[in-house]
Amino acid sequence: MSERSARRPRHIPRRRRFGRIAWFFVRLVAHIIIWDLVLGRRAWFRWYADRTREQRYQSFARRFRDLALDLGGVMIKLGQFASTRVDILPPTVVGELSGLQDEVPPVESERILATLTAELKRPIAAVFPFFDAQPVAAASFGQVHQARLDDGTLVAVKVQRPNIEEYVQVDLAALRWVASWMQYYGPIRRRMDLPALTEEFARITLRELDYRLEADHADRFRRNFANDPAVYVPQMYRAFSTRRVLTMEWIEGIKITDYAALDAVHIDRLALAEKLYLTYLQQCFTDGFFHADPHPGNMFVRPIGTRQPDGHQPFMITFLDFGMVDEIPPRVMEGLAQAAAGIVFRDAQRIIDGSRQVGTLMADVNETQLRQAIEVWFSYTYGRTLRELQEIDVEGFVGGIGDILYDLPFQLPQSLLFLGRAVGVVGGVATGLAPEFDIFATTRPFALRFIRERGSGRELRERLATEGRELLTDLSRIPHQAALFYTRAARGDLQVRPDLTRVERGLRGLERLMTRTMVTIAGSAMLITNAILQASASSSTWLWWVGGGLIVWALWPRPSWLR
C-alpha cells in the first residue's frame, strides 16, 4: 500500500468539508466548459486541447484521489465507480483511481472496537471468542474484520466507520449544491433533472448506512439465484448484527479483476465475463432487483468441481456488499427488455418503443431522425466484440450523427440512475476480463426468450414470417428495378432528391457562424478602439464591457433551446 493510500481520513469541520468538495467540482466543471466546450470547439485551439486532454484529466483524477483518501465517505464511492470505467476512461485516469477499490485507509482499531461494543451491548469476547482487530478490508462506509463464533464458524464482521453518517450528509449537501447550479446549463437541464437524480442517489446512499437492510437485500438476492450453482451469496448472521454491525459468512476467493490468479487456476475469463453479464440480464429483466455496486472489490470467483475436458475450471461468482441495491419498476423493466430485443434484431422501431416506455425519450422526439441515428450506430457497432467496439472510428461515428444527436430529446430518468451505474461498472469489468466478449451474441438467446414469454412465441413467428415475405418480395423486384434504373440512366432521367432537412440545418449552422463572426469582429473593434482612446486619456468603460460581452456571447456554446 502506498504512502498516499495509507493516509487515514481526518475529521474536518462540516463547512470546510463542504467547501473542499464543492470547490473541486466547480473547478472540474469550469475546466470542462472552458477547455472542451468553448475553446476545444475552435479550430485554432482544438489541436492543443486534444493533445493535452489525457494529461489534464489525469491531473484531476490524482487530485480527486487525494481528496477522497483525505475525506473518505461518498467521495471514495464515486472514485470506485469511476475507476471501473475502463471502457470509456483513459488508462492513466483509471490507474490513478484504481487504488480506491481496495486500498481505502482503515480507521484506528480502538474506535472500531468501541463502536462494536456499543452496538452489541456486551464485551466483544462474549460474542466473538476470536476477533482480529486488524481489518482485512476497508470500504467507503465501513471496514471488515475476521472473527469466530462460539461454534468455531469463521465470520466476517463489517463495522461502520465512526461519524460516517455526518460525513455522508455533508457530502450529499455539497453534491446537491453542485447539481443545483449545474441545472442552469441548458443542455444539462434539457437532458436530465440533476437535482432529482441527486436525491435518488442520496436515498440509496443513506439506505446503505443501515446494515439490517443490507442483510435483507442479501437474502432476497440469494432467493433469486437459488437455482444457479454459479452464483453465491454469503450467509447473514442476524443474531450478531445491528444497524451499524453486520456479521456474515467468511468468504475466500479470487478478486474478479485478478487476471493472473484466474489464469493460474484455469478459469475461462470469457465464460466468466459472459456469466457476469447474464446474471445482470436476470437481475434487470427478470427479477427487477439488482446489485447496484458491482465494483471488483465486491465480486470474488471460486473454482468448483473438477476441471472440464477443455482444460477450463468451473467457477462460482460470489457477490458481496448488498448495501447499494435498487428495484426496477415493471413497466421500466419491460421497456428495457423491449429495447434490448431491438438491439439484438437490429430493429430501430423496437428500440424507440422500448425507450419511450422506459422514459428516456421526450414527448417531442423526431422518430425519423432517431431511426436514422440508430441505423448509423448499428453500422458501427452491431455484431462487434468489446475489443472491436473500443477500436471503432469514433470521429466517423460522431461525424455521421453529430448534428442529429445534439437535437434528439434524450433524457435520463430518475429510475435508471443506479442501473446505468451498474451497467457501466459491469461493462468495464467484462472488458477487462475478455475484450473478445460478443455482447450481441450473448444477449440474443435472452431476447428470444423474452419475445417468446411475452407473446407466447406468436410475435416471434409473425416477425420471422414477415421478414421472410419481405425478403422474397424484395428479391423478386430486383431484376425489374435494375432494368428500370439503367433505362432511366440511359435517357438522362435520373433525379437526385436532396435531404432538405439536412440542407436547412446546414444553412442554419452557416447563418449562426456568420452571425457569431460578425459579432466577434464588432466586439474586437470596440476593444481596439477603446485601447487607442486610452492612449489619449479618452477611453470609455462601457466600450470595454460591451466589447468583451459581445466576444463572450459569440464564443459561448448555445444550448439547444436557443438554436
Question: What are the salient characteristics of this protein?
Answer:
11 strands; globular; 8% strand; alpha+beta; 5-stranded antiparallel beta sheet
Structural features, described:
With 563 residues, the protein is of the alpha+beta class. Helices cover 62% and strands 8% of the residues. It has helices spanning 3-6, 14-38, 43-71, 74-83, 91-97, 109-120, 124-127, 164-182, 186-191, 194-207, 211-224, 259-264, 269-287, 330-344, 348-358, 367-381, 386-390, 394-407, 417-433, 439-455, 458-491, 500-535, 541-555, and strands at residues 130-131, 137-138, 142-148, 154-160, 231-232, 245-249, 254-255, 289-291, 299-303, 315-319, 325-327. α13 runs parallel beside α20. The chain starts with a helix and ends in an 8-residue tail after the last helix.
What structural class results from the helix and strand content?
alpha+beta
Low-confidence stretches: 1-6, 496-503, 558-563
Kindly provide the radius of gyration, computed on alpha-carbon positions and rounded to a whole number of angstroms: 28 Å
What share of residues are in beta strands?
A: 5-15%
Helical run tally: 23
Let me know the average pLDDT: 78
Shape: globular
**Quick one: biggest sheet?**
5 strands, antiparallel
> Span from first to last CA?
52 Å
Number of strands: 11
Helix content: 55-70%
